Amino acid sequence: MNIKTPIILTTALMLSVPAFAQTTTQPTKPVKPYGENPNLLHVFAYKAQEGVVNTAEKVGEVTEKGIAKIKPGVDRAWSNTKSATLDTLQKVDQGATQAAQQTGQKIQQTKEVWRGNSQQAAPIVQQPLSESSAPQQTTTPQMQPQSGSGSATSYAITDL
């Protein structure tokens, strides 16, 4: 009989613990209170049930208090994160818009350089067919005073 009692007690506790863990969903307790002449195993099971229920309630209360303490900080951190994200998103959008505008301007400038500005009229040069079509050079020779015995001539370039 000494071997049966601990085995039965252990089995009863192991079977009753999962039922105690769900006390919030079960309004009635699986082990009923004991009467005037209870079985020792029934008393142990009832006491274990009460201990588990009380422990679960205390853990729930402590958890709720802890959540209540950290909730304002978490909410504040979450709102800060959202506002920082929105600020960053706005900055990225502005940067992308500016980059797109600058790129469009550069493309337009490049097109104007390669094709010529469409707003400016091309100069029309009229000259007789007997003259050369090579551009005329508009440089005039200028004499500078010579400091030596050589005769070097220098020209000023006015068109580049």
CA gyration radius, whole angstroms: 49 Å
Main β-sheet, spatial strand arrangement: 1-2
What is the global morphology? Answer: rod-shaped
Strand segment tally: 2
Count of DSSP H/I helices: 2
Order of helices and strands: HHEE
Which range best describes the helical content: under 10%, 10-25%, 25-40%, 40-55%, 55-70% or over 70%?
55-70%
The first-to-last residue Cα distance is 121 Å
- From the helix content, strand content and strand pairing, which structural class follows? mainly alpha
Unreliable segments of 5+ consecutive residues: none
Give the rounded overall mean pLDDT.
76
Major sheet details: 2 strands, antiparallel
Strand content: under 5%
Describe the structure.
- It is a single chain.
- The chain is mainly alpha-helical.
- It has 2 helices and 2 strands.
- The protein has helices spanning about 5-20, 40-115, and strands at about 140, 155.
- A two-stranded antiparallel ribbon has the order 1-2.
- The longest helix is centred in the middle third of the chain and has 76 residues, at about 40-115.
Q: Could you outline the blueprint of secondary structure elements for this entry?
A:
Blueprint: H1 4-21, H2 40-115, E1 140-142, E2 154-156
Antiparallel strand pairs: 1-2
Helix pairs in contact: 1-2
